[in-house]
Amino acid sequence: MMTDLSVSTLMGIRCAADIIRGSKHAVVLTGAGISTPSGVPDFRSKDSGLWEKFDPFEVASLSAFRYNPLGFYSWLRNLARGIFEAMPNPAHYGIARLEQAGYVQTVITQNIDLLHQRAGSKNVLEVHGSMSSLTCTSCYRTVDALGYIEPYLERGEAPYCPACGSILKPDLVLMGEQLPARVWLKAQEASKNCDLMIVAGSSLEVLPVAGLPMRALENGAHLVLINHTPTYLDVRADVVLHEDVAQVIPRIVAEVLGE
Ligand code: ZN
Q1: What protein residues have CB closer than 5 angstroms to ion ligand 1?
Q2: CB 199 within 8 A of CB 221
Q3: What is the CA radius of gyration of the chain?
Q4: Does the predicted model carry a pTM greater than 0.85?
């Protein structure tokens, strides 16, 4: 056993592993903190460096997109490049292993970076949308983003609808935009029906997603929180680990799987 973690952290890891082993319907809720070890900036956070030159409501809001889509795409390009170049980290892989081993039923993520899927997670609910598809602003046709990524990242070409020629909007939830209804409904259902919620890399500050663990608690679920900073639910959780997700989650997984 490595000794880089404190005794209380090691006890927390063991306790979290016991709870996971005893659960039948665990749900993992992840936020930007799970992707920061992969180098992905949090596009909603003031600390991300993305807003030093820009006011988020002037570029990353729905009204800004409608007013100036080309300005939006020019702003998004660096962030998009960072996302497509990022690799999943040990926390993403650990969560995928828990799903493969049958302990985790659903991953609810606030992230748009596809890293859970690339790590092998199958049942992922992207409540803030994702970079994998685009929707036409006129005829609402949805297309796969794959064919548009390279021309955009390489040459800054904005994507246009193959059917009607109007500008396409990435299917990520911008400020001032509703969450995708069907996905959000599934996330609420999963939170209500789980017997364990593991929150990883989220400070639980962005509503309405931050309310999901409360829904789980109201229905008698256990709660495990792994985040660098405290959250409003630390007092209600069975286990709280203020640690690096990429360091702690693989240790929990190894403990669960008896490695
Ligand atoms: Zn169209």
Answers
A1: 136, 138-139, 141, 161, 163-164, 166
A2: no
A3: 19
A4: yes
Report whether 5 contacts 11 (CB < 8 A): no
Query: What is the Å distance from ligand 1's center to 133 Cα?
Result: 14
According to DSSP, the residues that pair with 133 across neighbouring strands are 144
Instruction: Return all residues near 33 (Cβ < 8 A) that are at least 6 apart.
Output: 42, 200, 201, 202, 203, 227, 228, 245
User: Is residue 60 pLDDT above 90, yes or no?
Assistant: no
Ligand 1 center to 150 CA (angstroms): 20
Structure tokens at 186: 């599934």
| 107-162 tens-digit pLDDT | 999 999 999 999 999 999 999 998 899 999 999 999 999 999 999 999 999 999 99
Separation of alpha carbons 59 and 48, rounded Å? 15
Alpha carbon distance 179, 27 (integer Å): 19
| Residue 44, both tokens | 């909603």
- CA 96, distance to chain mean position in Å, is 13
Alpha carbon of 171 to ligand 1 centroid (Å): 14
Distance (angstroms) between ligand 1 centre and the Cα of 152 equals 18
